[in-house]
Each structure stands twice: as C-alpha cells, then as structure tokens.
Amino acid sequence: MDKILVPIGTSPDSHETLQYAVDFAVKFSFDICVMEAFSATTKAGTLGNVKEKLAESGKERLKEVVAKVDAKGISIKIVTYNGDIIDGIKEIDAELGIDFIIIAPRSSDIKEELYLGNVSGRIIKRTDIPTLIIPKGTRYKAFKNILTAFRSGILKRNRILDPLIAIKKKHRSKVNLLLVKTPGYSDEDLQVNTALMDICSNLTITENATTYHGVLEHFQSINPDLLCVFRRKRGFFKKLWEKNTILKSEFSVPIPVLVLSVKKD
Hints:
It is built from seven helices and twelve strands. The protein has helices at 14-28, 50-67, 85-96, 118-126, 162-171, 194-198, 211-222, and strands at residues 3-7, 31-38, 76-82, 100-103, 114-116, 131-133, 145-150, 174-181, 202-207, 226-230, 246-247, 257-260. The strands form two sheets. It has a ten-stranded mixed beta sheet with strand order 3-2-1-4-6-12-10-7-8-9, sandwiched between helices. A two-stranded antiparallel sheet has the order 5-11.
C-alpha cells in the first residue's frame, strides 16, 4: 500500500482529517491525494467555462485545507472531479491506484445525531477500497489493541487482510478476534480463516442479535483503540445497505473504524 485518498467535504474541520491522514502516511511512507467532487452541467445560454471555474475554485479551497496541515514532507496531490463522488473515487483509483481511504464519519453532514453522513455512508457502501473512519478530534497514535469483529470466519481472499496486517506490523498491535454467532449462522461461518487466525492474539466467540451487539458486550473488556470490520451486503453495517446514513443510536464508537473490503455475499 502506498496511496491514501482523503475526500474533503464542506466541514470546517476537514483539515483535521487530513492531518490525521498525513500523520498516518508518515508512518507507512504513503503519498496522499485529496479530492473534492462538484457538479456542473452546462445548458444552452450558460457560460462554457463554468466547469473550469468550479474546478479551479475547488482546487483553491483544497489548497487552503492543505495549507492548514503540517505535511511533514508527504506528497499531497490535489484533484477535483465533476460528477458524483463515488464515480470520482473509482476514476482516481483506476488512474492512481488507491490503497486506503481516510474519512470523517460525517464528511459533509452537520447533523450531530448521525454517525455516518450521506457522503461518508455512500463511500463505505459503494466502494471496495479499505476505509479508515476517523472520529472528529482524533489525533493519530499507534493502534496497540485492535478488535476485529465478524459473524463469519470465511474470507473470500486472504489479501483482504493486507491493510490489517500492515497496521499490525507497523504498530506491533495485538489483534483480538470476536466471532459473533447471530441468528441463522451456519457451522461453516464458525470456521475461521487460517490467515485471520495467524495474526490474532486471541479469539472470543459470543452469541448476539447482531455483530454490533457483540462489540458492545465486549468493548470495555477488550478496550480497543481500533475496531476492524468487514464490508459486506449482510455484514457489520447491515443497515447501511438500506440507507446511506447511520444514526449514532444505531452505531457509534469513540475510536477509529477500519472497514475492510468485501468478504462474501
């Protein structure tokens, strides 16, 4: 992994997320790309250079955000995209090869009752790039104790774990596995992938209504500084597949959340 994408929303705290990404990138020798998506449609009788003006305005705003952080020698590339942010992320990924996305939970939504806003929720829902969700005001520090929660031990591909393995190696982390038996689980779900077992320090098996309820039950005893979950259609963020936003009453943890790519359908 060597490239991090930081989508910048309209929040005045965007530079805090970027600073976290910079501090994270320094540890891993990554480069950073910051992006902003805008929508410009040219109709008959309108100025032909509207798109160019909006793109330039976006770049200037991104430069202002970048100027607020200590880059620490990290290369920061500025990109604007005319169109939907998901299409923009996919295009940038195809061109540059993005290994990691770092976002705030509410990248452009100021509703305090939300954990994931519409933009951040759509990024989690509609991309397959490993994503690190950073709560507001969080400063970078090494992840010493990681909780990896899941309802099925089946992995589609071992390389799904690469971001978690990289973090474990750099931070010398302890990885705690939490297998949550939810209603309708199969014996196959209880067979934990050997690559996952190889990186763990201990495995806890619990039975709860949802994976999140399992996390809530064991959160204090494990006391993690990073929660790792898997992005799947019926996975940890199940409600996310029904809508783009998630209320804090439905899910909220005060620590960064690493969302790994799809396991199985």
